[in-house]
Specification:
Number of helices: 11
Order of helices and strands: EHEHEHEHEHEEHEHHHHH
Strand content: 5-15%
Oligomer: single chain
Helix content: 40-55%
Distance between the termini: 58 Å
Length: about 280
């Protein structure tokens, strides 16, 4: 039986790790310092808790890191400090440069690093995200087998560490930045009383985030995680000589929603928070 360790079981990590149980894998998670919400998710997906990271590192054949991108390097360093020598799959939304540093952190201890990225919503009965994997060819099939006959669709990429991260950020730099631009555009239209006309224009097109105003509060609630991801995307763009201004600006815009992590704002309130503090109506 393959033993998979997951760090840490957020909404995506817990759901993806839970899918690995379908192949017969035992899935571990580290309870140290985690919230009651993490515990509930782990229980929901049948994950087995261990008290210390060192125990997880000692027992796991494969470790899957799925955490906010800003924490990815710290998580890798913590695992490396346990002298982990198995297969380490970093499936976070980080740039190829960050992925290279993670690889350098893990390699001295004999770990085999796999670059991964998840594109799509957490797996469920109706949703099947893709898990892209890149790295040493001899270990990729073993990681893929963990998700055989599950809702996670594994795709193997040619090339080394960095390929999966580049794909993720190529996609998310548009996908997430476009949602931010839609929020700003709607806010400008609302300030001038033309939001109805803007929606009418947007709805006349086949598909547009401008017509999905109910998504704006969701962007605000997720900006604590998406903002760092945009900074990683900027790093990726600069790494190949492309302008990073748009995604860097998206991160700045998202900082206007600091303090609303996983909150339930209304659309109007989320839009109001985009304004400079001095421009807001008194509360």
């Amino acid at each position: 039986m393959t033993v998979l360790g997951v760090l840490h079981p957020g909404s995506m990590g817990a759901a993806v790790a839970g899918q690995a149980r379908r192949s017969g894998a035992e899935v571990l998670w580290c309870t140290d310092g985690r919230s009651t919400e993490s515990t509930r998710r782990a229980e929901r997906y049948g994950l087995s808790g261990v008290a210390e990271l060192s125990e997880l590192a000692d027992r796991a054949d494969v470790i899957l890191s799925l955490c906010p991108p800003a924490a990815a390097e710290d998580v890798a360093r913590a695992v490396a400090a346990c002298s982990y020598s198995g297969t380490y799959v970093d499936a976070n939304a980080v740039s190829p440069n960050t992925m290279a540093r993670i690889n350098s952190t893990m390699e001295p201890f004999g770990a085999t690093v796999v670059d991964g990225s998840v594109i799509g919503s957490p797996p469920s009965e109706s949703k099947s995200p893709r898990l892209y994997l890149a790295g040493p060819g001899e270990v990729l099939p073993r990681v893929a087998e963990l998700f055989a006959d599950s809702a996670v669709q594994v795709r193997l990429l040619n090339g080394g560490v960095g390929q999966a991260s580049a794909l993720k950020l190529s996609y998310s730099s548009y996908q997430k930045a476009s949602r931010v631009l839609a929020a700003v555009a709607y806010a400008l239209a609302q300030d001038h009383g033309v939001e109805g006309e803007l929606l009418d224009i947007a709805r006349g097109r086949s598909s547009s985030y401008l017509s999905e105003t109910e998504y704006i509060p969701k962007v605000a609630a997720r900006s604590w995680r998406w903002g760092p991801e945009m900074r990683e995307a900027a790093d990726a763009l600069r790494g190949v000589g492309l302008p990073a201004d748009l995604v860097e600006a998206s991160a700045v815009v998202m900082s206007r929603w600091d303090g609303f992590r996983d909150s339930a704002l209304g659309t109007d309130e989320a839009i109001e928070r985009l304004h400079e503090p001095s421009d807001r109506e008194p509360t």
